[in-house]
Amino acid sequence: MSDFDIEDRWAPAGQAGVRVRVADGLMLNADARYVPFSTVAEGALGGAPVSARLRIRPILANVGIAYRF
């Protein structure tokens, strides 16, 4: 049996991107986002105390096509 408590935390986020017009009404866009965050999880697993610190540093990339009517 397990019983865990995970802390809620705020995290900053950064984003940079570009949109380029290819033709009349047609655009390509791309952006990248960096969302670093960390949290602490504590609890018991099979009666034994467990503690873990999680640090996640994802970089998310997006590419898209847009058409304006």
Instruction: Indicate the overall shape.
Output: rod-shaped
Classify the beta-strand content into a percent band: over 45%
Strand order of the largest sheet: 1-4-5
Question: What are the segments in which pLDDT stays under 50 over at least 5 consecutive residues?
Answer: none
- The strand count comes to 6
Task: Specify Rg, calculated over alpha carbons.
Answer: 20 Å
Helix content percent band:
under 10%
Distance from first to last alpha carbon: 57 Å
Mean pLDDT: 89
Our count of helices gives: 0
H/E element sequence: EEEEEE
Count of structural domains: 1
User: Which structural category fits the helices and strands?
Assistant: mainly beta
User: Main sheet?
Assistant: 3 strands, antiparallel
Structure notes:
- The chain is mainly β.
- It has one domain.
- Helices cover 0% and strands 74% of the residues.
- The protein has a three-stranded antiparallel beta sheet with strand order 1-4-5, with no helix packed on it. A three-stranded antiparallel beta sheet has the order 2-3-6, with no helix packed on it.
- It is rod-shaped.
Task: Note the topology.
Elements: E1 2-6, E2 14-23, E3 26-34, E4 37-45, E5 48-56, E6 59-67
Antiparallel strand pairs: 1-4, 2-3, 3-6, 4-5
What's a concise summary of this model?
By secondary structure, the chain is mostly beta strands. The chain has strands at 2-6, 14-23, 26-34, 37-45, 48-56, 59-67. It has one domain.
Considering the chains and any ligands shown, give keywords for the structure.
three-stranded antiparallel β-sheet; 69 residues; single chain; mainly beta; rod-shaped
